[in-house]
Design goal:
The protein is mainly alpha-helical. The chain has a single domain, classed as Arc Repressor Mutant, subunit A. It contains 6 helices and 2 strands.
């Protein structure tokens, strides 16, 4: 599984909004400048995040974007499912119950189910707050 640029940039965008949550609504231009991402590319990501309820938007002079919830409530899994769709490693796990005609006799299904569970459990355990806290633990002073 590879996470697309869209998924990675969406995570960076929401991370930026979490960092600046006290400022209220933040312009897309400011996010783009701070994150080094094209504003036009972020404009393509916004509808996906809006549709899933991760973003709040406000138009007008003081308009912009902000997280719809708290940084500790938004998981990496939420962001990636909003932008990437299913995180299932194989197509037969996209639906519950598994509709694959071979599911009952598939000897490798348990491998894909285990991988899917591990990926989802991990991504759902990491929040935007965790990413912020991890970043504050990184020091610019290195000794070798």
């Amino acid at each position: 599984m590879k996470i697309s640029t869209k998924g990675r940039y969406a995570l960076r965008m929401l991370y930026d909004l979490a960092l600046h949550q006290e400022e209220g609504y933040v312009s897309l231009k400011d996010i783009a400048d701070r994150q080094g991402i094209s504003k036009k590319y972020l404009e393509q990501i916004v509808p996906l995040l809006n549709k899933t309820g991760l973003l709040r938007t406000n138009r007008g002079n003081k308009g912009g974007y902000m997280l719809s919830g708290k940084a500790e409530e938004v998981t990496v899994g939420d962001v990636l499912r909003a932008t990437e769709g299913s995180l299932a490693p194989v197509a037969c796990l996209d639906f519950e119950p598994n509709e694959c005609p071979r599911a009952a006799e598939c000897s490798t299904l348990f491998v894909w189910e285990g991988l899917y569970k591990a990926v989802n459990d991990y991504l759902d355990s990491v929040t935007l707050k965790d990413i912020i806290e991890h970043g504050t633990n990184i020091s610019g002073d290195y000794c070798i």
